[in-house]
From TrEMBL:
Residues 19-163 form the MoaB/Mog domain. Keywords: Molybdenum cofactor biosynthesis. InterPro entries: MoaB (IPR012245), MoaB/Mog-like_dom_sf (IPR036425), MoaB/Mog_dom (IPR001453), MoaB_proteobac (IPR013484). Belongs to the MoaB/Mog family. The keyword DNA-binding does not apply. This is Molybdenum cofactor biosynthesis protein B. May be involved in the biosynthesis of molybdopterin.
């Protein structure tokens, strides 16, 4: 049973710096509707769009861009869109999982729960995933605009808001690199 997200407005909102990566062989800056949707929602939520890029469906190119952002202390979160399907060209998951120090399994579970309300059983064709690497959160969303909306509106908007209760990902960011 889904619960309504709760914000504790007595707590301060802490904007996070988010990089958006579109993975596609067919899109460019002029028709990147999923990347545009995500960038707009990030700004509307009060966060900082720290970087944005578009790369081809190529494991090395995806990993290289994400590794650059992981090393950048001015980026807290990376959100990719595209390349999470089942076709031979869908390699985002294979590019990102080796980078993860920890996988956030619950993200995929929640994504599928939410996505099933909009696309039904077709959600099983997505391999949305998430993890942490070098103190940076990494989320991989499918490439459709609807999937981006499901992932942001249903999960990330809330978990990246420092006021969300009972807990959120922002409050543990300072501890991600603890050893």
């Amino acid at each position: 049973m889904a619960t309504t997200p709760r914000l504790d407005n007595t707590r301060p909102f802490l904007p996070v710096r988010i990089a958006v990566l579109t993975v596609s062989d067919t899109r460019d800056a002029s028709n990147d509707t999923s990347g545009d949707t995500l960038a707009k929602r990030i700004a509307e939520a009060g966060h900082v769009l720290a970087a944005r890029a578009l790369v081809r469906d190529d494991k090395a190119a995806i990993a290289s861009q994400v590794l650059t952002w992981i090393a950048d202390r001015d980026i807290d979160v990376v959100i990719s869109t595209g390349g999470t399907g089942l076709t031979g060209r869908d390699v985002t998951v294979e590019a990102l999982r080796p980078l993860f120090e920890k996988e956030i399994e619950g993200f995929s579970v929640l994504f599928h729960q939410i996505s099933s309300t909009t696309v039904g059983t077709s959600t099983m064709q997505s391999r949305a995933t998430a993890g942490v690497a070098g103190g940076t959160y990494i989320f991989a969303l499918p490439g459709s605009t609807g999937a981006v909306k499901d992932g942001w509106d249903g999960i990330l908007r809330w978990q990246l808001d420092s006021r969300h209760r009972p807990c959120n990902l922002v409050e543990i960011m300072p501890r991600l690199n603890e050893r």
